Amino acid sequence: MKSIPELQQDYLSGATSPTRVVAEIFPAIRENRLNAYLAHDEAAALVQARSAEAVLQAKGASAFVDQPLLGIPYAAKDLFATPGLPTTCASKILEGYLPPYTAAVIERIERAGGVLLGKLNMDEFAMGGSNENSAYGPVDHPTHPGKVPGGSSGGSAAAVRAGLCAFSLGTDTGGSIRLPASYCGVVGYKPTYGRVSRYGMTAFASSLDQAGPLALNVADAATVADVICGHDPRDSTSRTQGAAFTAELKKPWDWKRVRFGVPREYLGEGLSAEVRAQIEKAAQWLEARGAQRVEVSLPHSKYAVAVYYIVAVSEASSNLSRFDGVRFGPRPAEALRAGSIEEFYASVRTQFGPEVKRRIILGTFSLSSGYADQYYAQAAKVRRLMAQDFESAFQEVDFLISPVAPTTAYARGSKSQDPLAMYLNDLLTIPVNLAGLPGVSVPAGTGAEGLPIGLQWIGPALSDERLLAAAHAFEKGFA
Amino acid sequence: MKVDAELTRKLAQLARLRLTEAEIAEFTAQLGKIIDYVGQLQVLKVEGVEPLLYPSMVGTEDGMRLRPDEARTIPADAVAEPYRVPQVVS
């Protein structure tokens, strides 16, 4: 699959066309070797592609000014409400569900000319780090069969890496864009909380969730960011900042004006030797180009997983209470025989998978009377301390860099027996969500067996454009 | 913090989840470990620290009710006040 500008060039020169690109991708989408897709619609995609061709015919290159994604094929994680394609959140409780409205990000991409190919597999309700928790089967790693692609946006990362779309949409609550991007060797960007509207995006943890692009390179991610970022009055947490990503990438970059740090707590013992080596290599590369490395500490880092697995699960238990079979979603035959509303609810809610049930119960615990102060309120205060750690660090540096995960992609089935071990894998990505900061994973070499290693870039709130510019400059030069 | 089957059952009931006996046993063990782990926060001194609930809250929480004009694929009167749905309990 070519990059966005390459596709656009080919469209203008006549080397290919949106309908040709769609027709060429679909056999692999239908074969679905990686199980990355949960739903797809070639006929609908061709309609969008033909409409893009008509605009290109009429306007030529100037068409891309108003519609920067014109004719570009993409797919969306299956928790965005899309017209005509089901939105299941990879759960049985929403099997076949067709929302009656469209997500804000999907609307924006549609207006920008993007061609929606289908919906992508994920961990159920975005709960997981390996795409092993889908009710519709796991996703395979795009280049290393038998390894996990990461999660929860596993389908989103795998599809981009395997050329099954030019870019994809994922979501990130505790690392779910950045982790699969790192494991699969693509770019994954999580915006500052509030820059992308959550309208029409099934909520897991409302104070942490953020939608973002996965793409083959930073410039493509920036093109998508220009389209999806922006205020939406339908999301009460939506910020008013406009987007200027591509413009920022055009400015000349000078590493000598950059101060960066690697949080000392992020280089702890759990890190594999090969990941540590690659991060050090990246840091040295930056210093060789004149960037100034500063020692930084985020002292409350070690509490990240504990805070997250109270805050996120509490919000999830509340958000998932709406799945009761009354207004939407399938009603199992047994539910229809229920003698009371409580039995009806309980019967419908047996359709959740085990990880979802586990997190709902954990969240119910932390919010229940007698425990809410000790657990939820306490965690929310520690969250404030963690956000303050970042604020202090950003007095000294412009960016933080770090590994995304302690290791490269691991074998499917190897961690799924121990939920807590799985949770600890997120310790490097979670703090960014807790503080609402922007983060991006950029491919930064490989480890044993050629498995990708991602470098995480973190910036202050609302520094997204500069953050992607730094990631772009790094990506272009680092080998 | 005593995490036993009785607590798991109570939480399941609060969450309107029906668990099998096998699930209760499995979840009780897992919950115990997780609750122990997250319990490490309790020793931290946080007096005077404001809880951070949302990194940004710009607008107001208006009733995010589905409007008839938004709901393309279901009839307008189903989205009126109150929502009309198929019968739930006979």
Question: Which pair of chains forms the biggest interface, and how many residues does each contribute?
Answer: A-B, 69 and 51 residues
Instruction: Kindly estimate the percentage of residues of chain A that lie in beta strands according to DSSP.
Output: 5-15%
Summed over residues and divided by their number, the pLDDT of chain A gives a mean of 96
Structural class, from secondary structure content of chain B? Answer: mainly alpha
Structural summary, described in words:
The complex is a heterodimer of chains A (479) and B (90). Chain A is of the alpha/beta class and 479 residues long. In chain A, 41% of the residues lie in helices and 12% in strands. Chain A has 18 helices and eleven strands. In chain A, strand 2, helix 5 and strand 3 form a beta-alpha-beta unit. In chain A, helix 11 crosses helix 15. Chain A is globular, with a radius of gyration of 21 Å. Chain B contains two helices and no strands. Classes of the chains: A alpha/beta (479), B mainly alpha (90). Chains A and B meet through helix 11, helix 13, helix 14, helix 15 and helix 16 of A and helix 1 and helix 2 of B.
Short summary:
The complex is a heterodimer of chains A (479) and B (90). Chain A is an alpha/beta fold and 479 residues long.
List the helices and strands and how they pair.
The complex is a heterodimer of chains A (479) and B (90).
Chain A: H1 4-13, H2 18-31, E1 37-40, H3 42-59, H4 63-66, E2 73-77, H5 104-111, E3 115-120, H6 154-161, E4 167-172, H7 178-184, E5 187-190, E6 210-215, H8 218-228, H9 245-250, E7 259-261, H10 273-288, E8 292-293, H11 304-319, H12 333-336, H13 341-348, H14 354-367, H15 373-396, E9 399-403, H16 419-424, H17 430-435, E10 439-446, E11 452-458, H18 464-477
Parallel strand pairs in A: 2-3, 2-4, 7-8, 7-9
Antiparallel strand pairs in A: 1-3, 4-6, 5-6, 5-10, 9-11, 10-11
Helix pairs in contact in A: 2-3, 11-14, 11-15
Chain B: H1 5-14, H2 21-38
